[in-house]
Structures are given as C-alpha cells and as structure tokens.
Amino acid sequence: MQKIHRSLLITLLVSSVSFSAAAKDVTVMISGGFKAALEKLAPQFEAKSGDKIILISGPSMGRTPQAIPARLARGEKADVVIMVGDALKNLEKDNWLQPGSRVELADSSIGMVVKEGEPKLNIKTDADLRNALLQAKSIAYSDSASGRYVSSQLFKKLGIEDQVKTKAHRVERIPVASEVAKGTYAVGFQQVSELLPVPGVTFVGELPEDVQYVTRFAGAVTAKATNGHEGKALLNFLSSAEAQDTVRATGLRSVTAERPVKQHDTVQ
C-alpha cells in the first residue's frame, strides 16, 4: 500500500512539474483602447491555457518613450503587440512583426467626458457639440489616434478651429479622463474604451455619427517573440465569439464582416 501511495505521489509531482514547465509567460505590449477588455479576459485565457499574461502599457504612437514603437526600437521584448491598426501596419512595414499574424480585435469610437459633478453636456448633434466646445473653458485630447483626429479634423469640421486653438491641449501618455477628473481640463476626448475605466468623470456620450472617428484595434505576434505560438493563441481567443460580450462591455464594438477596415483605420 505504501508503494502505491508513493507511486501516486511521484506521479502527481511529475505532472505538476510538467505542467509548470509547459506554462509560458506571454508578454503583451498594449495601448489603452483595448487594455480594459484584455484585463477582464486575461483570467479566462490563463485558466484555459495555463499560460500567464504580462502586460506592458504604452501608446500606439507619439513621441513619448513609453510608446510601443519606441519600446521595441530600444530592444524591449514582447510576444504580442495590441494597438491602433494603422500603427500596427507601420510596425509590419518595418519588419517588427511576424508576417500574416495580424488579428482584427475591435473598433473603438471617440467619446467625451466632464468632471464628475459637473453638468452633463448635450453633444447629440453637430450643433450641440460645437456649442459645448465653444462654451468649454478648456479641452483635452490624447496624443494618439483619437487626439490626432480631434485636433486636425474635428475642430475644422465643426468650423471652430480658430476659436478653440488656445484652449485645446494634448495630453501625452496618460489617460485624458484622469486630467479631467483632477479639474485640469473642463472636457476631454478619447476613445470610449479608454474613458470608461477612469473614476472621477462623467461620460457624456459618443461624437455624433457624421463626425465620428472609429479606430480599429488589432494585434500581431512580434518577429522576435519567445512564445509566439502562445501569443497567437491569445489573439485568436480575444477575437473569438466567446470574448465579444466582454469586449462590448468595455465600450468597444465587435469587428464584423459588415464593418471592414476603411478610412477609419488610416486617418492618423
């Protein structure tokens, strides 16, 4: 009987060691738009695969050293990158990614917030949005895809570029909503999925559809990935049907065949 127990114990120990040895750390460099979704979905993937996800945050673009292209350029390691689709194209052109590994993940629209406790503005129509921005004491936008659109196109479309020039400010690296929550700026624009997780603000709503800008988020395996197979499995899970309820709950839109990548993904 003792021999049986000893044999069973050895078998269990060997199995445990084998499982531990097989488990991999999947390092993911990710920009803010898809981060909330991944944080909610990570436990499901880890439970199913036995692998562990390690997140490294940074903007998809911009001049900050924390930006994903800058991180890769100075030799930081990652198995997967998840970021704005057009910035991902640039990494592919520069041979930072494994060919054919791109996976479409979600679409993200732009929204607006005000500090919690402040009156909730009306931005349902272009005229409402124009009036709200003219009345606002200050305006904040990000240094990534949504902010580039707001600063270079939205104000022009609304015919208020000159009027808001001195009160519109770019926020680098950190969430725009965090600055609005502190009262630094009166209103803030960013992708909805980046606004919703931040406490201390009230979500006003999305931009009117005719001046809306939708950013495609996608992921790919890096050319120098240590655990590329596991990284691709993660991307496939994040794009799967079982992940979509969580994706949408974080303010993103599911990618569908009826919504292909169009100009939304290229206005940078």
TrEMBL record:
Keywords carried by this UniProt record: Signal
Cleavable signal peptide: 1-23
InterPro entries: ModA/WtpA
Name of one Pfam family that matches: SBP_bac_11
Origin: domain of life: Bacteria
Protein name: Molybdenum ABC transporter substrate-binding protein
Species, as recorded: Pantoea endophytica
